[in-house]
Amino acid sequence: MTEFTLDHKPADIVKVFPKASDVFKRNRIDFCCGGDQPLRDVCSKRNLDETAVMETLNHAYQDWLKEDEHPIDWDRMPASDIIDHITQTHHAYLNEELPALGTFVSKIFRVHGKNHPHLKELHRLYNDFKVDMEEHTVKEEEEVFPLIKQYEDHPNDDLLQQIHEANGGLEDEHDAAGNMLKRMREITNGFEPPADACNSYRITYARLAELEADTFQHIHLENHVLFKNL
Known about the structure:
The chain is an all-alpha fold. The chain contains 9 helices and no strands. The mean pLDDT is about 90. Pfam families: Hemerythrin, ScdA_N.
């Protein structure tokens, strides 16, 4: 592929060009939970300048191609390898980051909440997100992922039915997590710390931005690669 068009879908573009996620995030284009709509429709709904979006996207893509990058072909990767990647990369990151970042979110709420009232909502949103994602990853690792690995070795209709039943609600949970992250971005002005922010404040916002990026990639892999190919 040499160029993307408005008929391409964000989820499919990110598979080919992972750094497209940066362009999409800047324009608030969903590439994970709602990534199955053509860019033409997305730009229309969000009143985005189609020409500007496509020029930015394709310019970044051409620069990336010149770097001789070779993206992973997720659609050709065995499900068990995708699961191992998700578990060892994204789940491991959440297990380590969620408690640590939670301490920072609580700290800036206690210290700065009086002068920055939005930190109260951020504190609530973050803790809801933390609990939901902890429960979500346990369900995947204990129930859904083992069934998918069994199905890969011994495909049959009974196992596929069990997967679909166990998978029930996971994509809705992805939507909920994505919406919480979008709201966090909105109330923090794109994770941009205020002028009077202390170092802890700035660290918190930077880590929230990293959490958002990792989670969106995590959800993208599950919704548009792992679950879609079953």
